[in-house]
Amino acid sequence: MWHRVRWRRLGWGGGERGERLTGTVRTTRSRIIHLRNDWKDLMALIEKRLHEHFASLQDDDAAEEAAPPPNIDSIPRDSVPEPLDQPFAKVNTVVDNSPAAAAGLKPGDLVRNFGYVNIENNDGLKKVAECVQGNEGQNILVKVSRSTGVSRPQELRLTLIPRRNWGGRGMLGCHILPL
User: Fold this and answer.
1) 145-151, long-range: CB within 8 Å, 24+ apart, which pairs?
2) Inside any domain, residue 1
3) Which GO terms describe its cellular component (predicted)?
4) Mean pLDDT value across the chain
5) Whether the Cβ atoms of residue 103 and residue 161 lie closer than 8 Å to each other
6) 3-class secondary structure, 62
7) Are residues 62 and 84 both part of a single domain?
8) Are residues 85 and 35 in the same domain?
9) Do 90 and 43 reside in the same domain of the chain?
10) Beta partners for 178?
11) Which range is most confident: 3-12, 56-65, 88-97?
12) Do 82 and 156 belong to one domain?
């Protein structure tokens, strides 16, 4: 009778040699190296895109600061802050080439003051209409709060000159909703 003899591969210390495990170790190491390289490439790409994004934000901010509309005064941030009135109205729409557009009003602006009108005396926006009627062709100071997507909204002082013959309905060219 013949018996098959299994020969064990023995290493120097008498234990099994790890030839069978060598392939697994090599493929695992290779996979780790590939994943590490992919991770480094992704991190470099993310870093590059972040730099581009924030550079474009700075360019946009610089362009906005360089050319503000003529009727807009931004409230200085370093000055002593005066208490802000609560908004009582929101600009819903603004028609192009209207007095409101010329003043710099934009949809979404929150109106804090409209001439002498504020949250305490607006009477459901009736006083705003009264203020507009009584100041046709004259400057009206409008304080608005504009969301810029940053943590704090931008506080603006706009000069609005209501007039009838601008080519559209009303004297402002915008639709204001009460809050």
Assistant:
1) 145/84, 145/87, 145/109, 145/110, 145/112, 146/106, 146/108, 146/109, 146/110, 147/108
2) no
3) cytoplasm; nucleus
4) 79
5) yes
6) helix
7) no
8) no
9) no
10) 89
11) 88-97
12) yes
User: What are 80's strand-pairing partners?
Assistant: none
Average pLDDT over residues 125-140: 87
Side-by-side strand order, sheet with 110-114: 72-74, 154-160, 140-146, 110-114, 89-94, 174-178
98-119 tens-digit pLDDT: 999 999 999 999 999 998 888 8
**Any domain includes 101:** yes
* 48 shares a domain with 13: yes
Residue-wise burial string across 146-176, b where 16 or more C-beta atoms lie within 10 A, e elsewhere: beeeeeebbbbbbbbbbeeebebebbbbbeb
For residues 94 and 168, membership in a common domain is answered with yes
| Token pair in block for residue 175 | 């639709």
Residue ending a domain, among 67, 92, 118, is 67
| pLDDT tens-digit readout, 61-107 | 666 665 555 555 555 555 555 677 888 899 999 998 899 999 999 99
